[in-house]
Amino acid sequence: MRPIYRYLLIKLSFLLATYFVAVTIAFVLPRIAPGNPVQQIIAGLSQGSLSPELLDQYQRRLIEEFGLNKPLHVQYFEFLKNAFSGNLGTSISSYRQPVTKLIAWHLPWTLLLLVPATLVAWTIGNYLGARAAYRRGTLFEKSVVSTGIILSQIPYYWMAMVLIYVFAIKLGWFPSGSAYDPTLAPSLNWEFIKSYLHHYILPFLSIALVSTGGWIIGMRVLAAMELGSTYVKFSEMLNVHDEIIFRYVLRNSLLPQVTGIAIQLGTVMAGQIITEQLFNYQGMGILLARALGSRDYPLIQGIFLILIGTLLLANFIVEFIYVLIDPRIRLGARE
Amino acid sequence: MVNKKKIGGMFLLLVFVGSFWGLQPVSAQISLPREDTVFVTGAQWSPASTWNLFSPSQTWGTYTSGGFMYLPLFQYIAGLNVWVPIIGESFELVNETTLIVHLRPEAKWSDGEPITAEDVVYTFELSKKVGSGPAAGSEPYIGDVKAIDSHTVQFTIGPEKNLPMFLLYALQFAPAPKHIIEQVYQKVGNHIIEWRNCGGTCDDVVSTENGDVTINVPQVVSGPYKLYYFDELRIVYERIDDWWGKDIFGLPGPKYVVHRIYLSNEQALLDLRQGNVDWSGIFIPNVGNFKEIGTFYKGKPYFRPGAFVMLYFNHKDPILQDPNLRKAIAYAINYQEVLTKAFYDYSPQPSMSLVFTVFPHYRMWLNTTLAQEYWGNPEGKIPYDPERAKQILAQAGYKDVDGDGFLETPSGEKIELNIIVPTGWTDWMIAADLIAHDLQKIGLNVVANPVDYGAYWGMINGAGYTLALGWTNSPSFYHPWDTYRYVLDPRLTPPTGNWGFYNNSKALELLVEAAKAESSEELMKYYTEIQKLIYEDIPAVPIAYSVQWYAYSEKYWTGWPNEDNPWWTEVAPYREYSLPLWLLFGLKKKGEPVSPPQWAKPKDEGGILIPNKEVLSQLSGVFVPEVNVTETFTTSSTSETETQPQPQAPASSSRFIVGILGIVIAVIVIVIGARKLSK
User: Fold this and answer.
1) Would you call A119 and B461 a contact, using CB atoms and an 8 Å cutoff?
2) Which fold has domain A114-287?
3) Is the pLDDT of residue B162 over 60?
4) What is the domain count for chain B?
5) Domain named ABC transmembrane type-1: which ranges (chain A) (predicted)?
6) What is the bridge-based pairing of β-strands B557-558 and B588-589?
7) Does the CB of B194 have a partner CB in chain A at under 8 Å?
8) Taking a C-beta distance cutoff of 8 angstroms, is the pair A95, A42 a contact?
């Protein structure tokens, strides 16, 4: 077998095994935690003056309907069967809504916020970081680096809170939350898009500003190392134009940052939960928080499957690209 | 370089367009005029589910919480102690077993069909058959329901012979449109509980044994609003302008009612303060600081009470089975401090009698002489007396044997208690902390233990706690009997009642007898006995009233009920049945003069409201035959609650094993994978 196939085969089996384990954990974890989704639905109703018998009946019907009275291993095998066939079941807290539909509704909002914010932060951060490294010792470097350090140490939610306080509550320039005006429905017309963009700015900034800081710091270190390499010294000796050297340095130190962005997208997803809660922004973060809070087993499982699945797949693709561009990895797989 | 830029740009564009593409299926052109719309929050915390009267899980507005799509025959209003005749016009208890209800001849479904006795009978029978819906759990209380003529219904009492529960079920019964429901039932049978009833705004697909069935029927309601639009963050209802009740009740002010779904209280509060939300049922700390938010009272306590906040003892725990310990705990709590520091002075100290003494119409059921005798004040408020608490414990033989500063039981057992509260419920967390400190002061080892809401429910349900802060139900027309039942009835299990797993046959006997009392004198006799039992046995300690969260913004709407404008009582939007609806009838756009609806007055003042007194006097005028008490102990609900799956305690060991197994597998696979790769 050619080493490249062998390598990919190992990677692929590893991918499947990890997926299986992740799926199992996604099944087990919410069930180990005490409490179940049905109790919570009923508990919410028990505060009123509905008769206990009615609530009792409702509780029993719900437990039956969602198969929570079946033995755990039966539930597990049903879930496994479904997980590999693409049927993620129906949500309990959002009663009888298919999990896939819920995810399909929430995911675009997160992507729309997350991907541009991360890409913009990545571009600006890397450019500023490289510039700062290139202009070592100047005021520009000092101000960029110190801003970068401060920004990168700020938690997303804190930045979000500050932005809400200053721009929404004190100045009133932007709305304090939600993805669009509550009197509108999502549709492709100018009124909606205007409202969407107006609501977009604060959450976008809260994510973009903080991650820009991280990229600046990372890039400055990489670029500084690159500046010490012999080709830069040689070019300087040849009196190559500054801008051209800078471009070389930028390009050559970008490679690790490309890997970084995949990881970043994953970690931002986590930070996103709090940001979305603060802005009441209807993305995956809110969906996950709601699912966890209400112990909605099918929904928790579904979200984790999607998140883990995409993360694994992204990793696999990155590794595949490495194989193509870096022969060392290909050869390393040979025994 | 240029090419790369192009690719990057195209990728971005793709993400944008693709994401919007994903939104397309749920989009519809809506644009709600702000001045015609009332925005609500605090009743619905997860996205819309069903609008189906027969479903165990319903969206706000349907029936079980804040229902106004399906109206009941009559509706009891606790704050005013009156009944609103809605679909029903009048009723009479003919004798001890029979109730006759006359329906309004004007009442019509939203498609123009009349609401008849047939609808009531059909709804009742179907609901019993599928085990869900307005008659769910009514078997002990309602025997059968018969249509005498098209607008007269006869209810017969069930085997339990419990008049208050019989009336509660029968009078607050909400009928469904037979001509629509019949079609659905024919198609999907008992799967009808899974139907979404959104009248074409969503896919009403129900999966049955014979595959998926799409149900295409219009949404037909009896109330003045029906579903207009919904998505993950909002549910929008639109007024039916030719609603049948227009000539009797008038039309509610807002054309649209929108419930906005939030994940956090903070965002909802922010929107309330900014006027983006008009009517709210969320927890608000220090509401006095926000001038832009209206509440029922202008000053303290701002809100009115809705239920009790209780300190529950787990009576299954052997240590807590000693009434001396429970009594000492009751004396050791500094109630005033808890009310001020934890509950923002929103509530006075409640009475140990569990009577809602803040409402004058319930106070009459408190035996003041008895309260004076036990607690030294006629209100039955437990005094803060740590010395007395210590004395009780010392007399009962509690001593610090091992010298750790905390008392041990008379038999030398260590006492380690904790008070569970849901995390994030900041007022409750502070209260638990203060109470724990008070109890430490008398030598009890007690700590506050905040756990997440899911875990909290698991622990309560599985009796896996020692002390817990919890709540009771809201008062019904038969208060305090309903609250006594919620706290004392051993046939109930949490979350439907009896959170403390209290099991006292004397208490049950009194509850059963009180439900059959023939006169208010007799009823008072039983209540006195129950109060005596509570005072002596301390099954649980009321700490505060849980507030009925009703707040509003006047930015767009005026005419909100409050102490200056008490034509109607405050209504938290999460209240069950159609209660929230009635406040909308008095709302006017900002600037328009406020005029309370004509009908919102008791009958003798020219309105249509039936005073609860009338209902109670009908009740006490009825002769009730003797029923053997011991027989009622073995009602169906007892046996059923036992066979009912309790996923907590029994399953936890197997869960644990599966969990460990999963983690072990995970570790093994990761290790093998890592080694393979590193080779």
Assistant:
1) no
2) MetI-like fold (1.10.3720)
3) yes
4) 2
5) 107-318
6) antiparallel
7) yes
8) no
